């Protein structure tokens, strides 16, 4: 059977619909039901410590739902235990129902087969340190890394100024033996997993690695709508060979459909429940860690939008800025803005703004100004100030002034 065919525009709209940008906006305050709707689309929220505009895991909800109470997400995660922290796509908040599907990764870490250098070396070379940290949590948990610390700050060895206790906690977290009980600000507070996650979740059967990875690939396919094998592998950061085997199996049984998208070099796969809308009318600022754009090759393929996060680029070499958010309008990424929440001054600073090639600043600026005003309100900032950098800055400053007037 010949594979189906999607135009590039159809593929883009499929992706936007799969990520929830076709869902109706809440008519009243955002509730837990709305959050579950979004997480049911994305299956995870990537976390990151950078807080120049807002924490990474909070922005995808805002992008899809609009302003919401900042206390809602922590309440669901650390109060009602409906979400938990683990390595999904990097460090992530995930629905607790996914815990069984990630136990193979925990088992690999336990067996020193997966993870990264410092924690694995510590467990291999100094298992007594790990055992001591476990006993400390058993006796006194939940505890932050600082409260567990068994050496003064500064006498830390080679692991990014972490002492051995912190490194041990990272190993135990990857192995699933400890998890995040709560956060103080953004500081993680650890406890034994069996004292944090609901008992019924922990009691659920553990699928085989192959079945779990097939389930994760299928979730990634649902979240993407249409995707290449690389896209599917990247969503939950699976190994190349294992993801490829899962994709083959899912195609053979009809759970994924092969499709052709002109201009895509690699084979594409369509989730059978994917919607192919005729149009998408979205307006949203997107976090650099939003699943719609976190895989930069996919972002370029879908939107013709070349995107690089420049946090780690020296300031003098940055093209657009430190923390740049793409602006989605309709079904296109039409602009990008370098944002900073100046909380001391109560100002959302637009340090730079650029329109994409082919976009008219006079058309983009009023829509972007309205979205920036909404974002400022969500962050409790009373003013939007547009600085002079970027080809969109002049039109955007005028649009902001007109909306404030």
Give a verbal description of the structure:
The structure is a single chain. With 405 residues, this protein is α+β, with helices and mostly antiparallel strands. Helix content is 40%, strand content 19%. The chain is built from 16 helices and 15 strands. It has helices at residues 8-18, 32-42, 59-65, 72-79, 103-110, 117-125, 127-140, 145-148, 164-174, 199-202, 209-224, 229-235, 240-252, 296-303, 361-378, 393-404, and strands spanning 4-5, 45-46, 83-88, 90-95, 143-144, 178-184, 187-192, 226-228, 257-260, 268-270, 282-285, 324-330, 332-342, 347-355, 383-386. A 5-stranded mixed sheet has the order 11-12-13-14-15. Strand 12 and strand 13 (332-342) form a beta hairpin. Helix 12 crosses helix 13 (240-252) and helix 15 crosses helix 16. It is globular and about 65 Å long. Residues 151-161 have low confidence and may be disordered.
